[in-house]
Write a structure and sequence with these properties.
single chain; about 240 residues; alpha/beta; nine-stranded mixed β-sheet
């Protein structure tokens, strides 16, 4: 049976608000049938704390003034969950997927995302799994990957963040995901050495294709702009031109 095509865009370290705007505009394009294919965004974020629909400022254990001094914003988001941290060295995957095309419900969809990361960890010899405490991927009592999604018009966005090589210190400034007394880990911490992020990206793409039964078609952001012009793509292209 042929696999369903899905566009995939590899981005560099991307501002959280820019990525959020890009996602919401892709969701609108998907809903309005201007975009006939699901899209997966793979990227990293500069340091940022994000709050889910359950809130989370009460789980911030340092002052926001301290974070401002360090240049780390705290941003409210429409995703599920509580407070978490994103930073360089963390691989973030944002699938913009129409659940009717995937033919799964929300709970099964979340489990499939978790399974992608569990298999990535296994490829490096890390035994990871689920934990009834909280959604995501865990190694024992330490969280390896956080998950938080939003659904609009039956289309999912936001997604999962896998700790690969990032500094874990900022997690000590919060009760991660609103939980006390848990650890946060990374692939680097579990293995004792730094990983090649590109290898992890490629491995994650492989398992995403296998679990969702899709074929990823690598696409550049400017190609999305050509087909479906939207403001977020213009912002990405402007920065890319300035960096050349």
């Amino acid at each position: 049976m042929p696999r369903r095509n899905c566009l995939c865009v590899d981005l560099d370290c991307t501002d959280y608000q820019d990525a959020r705007t890009l996602q919401t505009e892709l969701v609108a394009a998907r809903w309005e049938k201007r975009l006939g294919t699901d899209v997966v965004l793979l990227l990293e974020h500069p340091p940022v704390f994000t709050l889910g629909r359950r809130g989370g400022r009460e789980n911030l254990t340092v002052s926001e003034e301290m974070l401002t001094d360090r240049g780390i914003p705290v941003i409210q988001s429409e995703r599920g969950g509580d407070i978490t941290f994103h930073g360089p060295g963390q691989l973030v995957m944002y699938p913009i997927m129409d659940l009717t095309s995937v033919r799964v419900g929300v709970v099964e969809y979340v489990e499939m995302l978790e399974e992608v990361v569990i298999r990535v960890a296994q490829n490096w010899g890390i035994t990871a799994g689920r934990n009834p405490l909280n959604r995501g991927v865990w190694v024992g009592n330490s969280k390896l990957a956080s998950i938080g999604i939003a659904v609009r018009h039956g289309i999912c966005f936001h997604g999962i963040a896998l700790n690969v090589n990032l500094s874990l210190d900022p997690f000590s400034w919060i009760n991660p995901c609103g939980l006390k007394g848990i650890g946060i880990t990374s692939m680097e911490k579990e293995l004792g050495w730094s990983l090649c992020m590109e290898e992890v990206r490629q491995n994650l793409k492989h398992h995403l294709e296998e679990i969702f039964g899709i074929k990823l078609i690598m696409t550049k952001i400017e190609d999305l702009e050509i087909k479906w012009p939207f403001k977020a793509a213009d912002a990405f292209l402007k920065r890319e031109r300035q960096s050349v």
